[in-house]
Amino acid sequence: MKNNSQKKLLLHTVSICILSIITLILFVGVLYVLHHLGLLPLWVNKQILLFRINFRPDLIPVLFTVTILFLLVFMLYHLLLSKRWFRNFDRISQGTKEMAKGNFDYKIPVYSKDELGKLAAYMNQISEQLERALSEERNAIQAKNELITNVSHDLRTPLTSIIGYLRLIDEDRYKDEVELRHYTAVAFDKSKRLERMVNDLFEYTRVNFGEIRLDYSEIDLIELLTQCTTQFIPLLREMDVEIDSQFPEGGLKVLADGDKLARVFENLIANGIKYGKEGKSIDLKAYKEGTNAVVEVINYGIPIPQADLPHLFDRFYRVEKSRSTFTGGSGLGLAISKGIVERHNGSIEAASADMKTIFRVALPLK
């Protein structure tokens, strides 16, 4: 590449010199013809005659030498000016070849602020944008494949149980009506779980692909949280768990979709009941922090391992072992909650240590 550029540069310089000599010869020839035809102005003809009278043949070698020196100086000057330009052009050419090969990590060095320097900077920007677009496409394909794999796995488990129990009923492989009712109840329970998983999957895709429509209105978070806790009273009594609500006076106003936010807090409270039953208590706090309204749902059950915390809001992610044995959720609840909160320009995070797990939701105050 470098040798080719040097050859091109030298050829370019020599071509300019030859073109200059030819132009000079043509100019002198045209003057000569016009002089003999009498088409030149009088003062030009006068200058030509004076030149012919005063011309000294012995100066021809000197003029020739001066001309050659001038051409050499001109060539050297042009080479020095053009060398940097060709070098920058080579860098851009090399960069485009690397991009054509798919190597978008390659960056073209930018050493000047002229047109070639700007072109190199633009090429680097294009390379970065292409790399970002390809990365997003790869992530989207990976996410789609993971989604298909996880959905297939999670749907197959209850579906297999339903088919198994229905086969037993179809083949009359039960002892009495009590066992028949047991098989029917299990199949029905698995069907409800399957329906819940399908609904969660549908809502997750709507939330995360921007297809969900939010009906904004002024919401009092205190009233919303009170309504959410009320519907859990039967489950709280069954689990022997209490909710300790700590709300400020005067309420906390936010501009939000009440139904969607209710889904978030219902999910967090339900998780607190499921996984915090050992602590027999759940703290539900709401307070103002700067320009945000903050809601914390705290349970005192088995803590979440630190390694699992960064992935809690990933779809289909479940914390293993003791925390997942109580219920087989869809693994989409927290992912849906995160999507809804972020659509409200808020944030959701979790912290867990020493038999205490906190889910914290922050929303802009109205």
From TrEMBL:
GO CC term (a single one): plasma membrane
Enzymatic class: transferase
Catalysed reactions listed for this entry: ATP + protein L-histidine = ADP + protein N-phospho-L-histidine
Ranges for domain HAMP: 83-135
Residue ranges constituting the Histidine kinase domain according to the UniProt record: 150-366
Membrane topology: Multi-pass membrane protein
CDD domains (UniProt xref): HAMP, HisKA
InterPro entries in the record: HAMP_dom (IPR003660), HATPase_C_sf (IPR036890), HATPase_dom (IPR003594), His_kinase_dom (IPR005467), HisK_dim/P_dom (IPR003661), HisK_dim/P_sf (IPR036097), HssS/ArlS-like (IPR050398), Sig_transdc_His_kin-like_C (IPR004358)
One Pfam family cited in the UniProt record for this chain: HATPase_c
GO molecular function terms attached to this record: ATP binding; phosphorelay sensor kinase activity
Membrane-spanning intervals of the chain: 9-34, 59-81
Name the record gives this protein: histidine kinase
UniProt source species: Lentibacillus salicampi
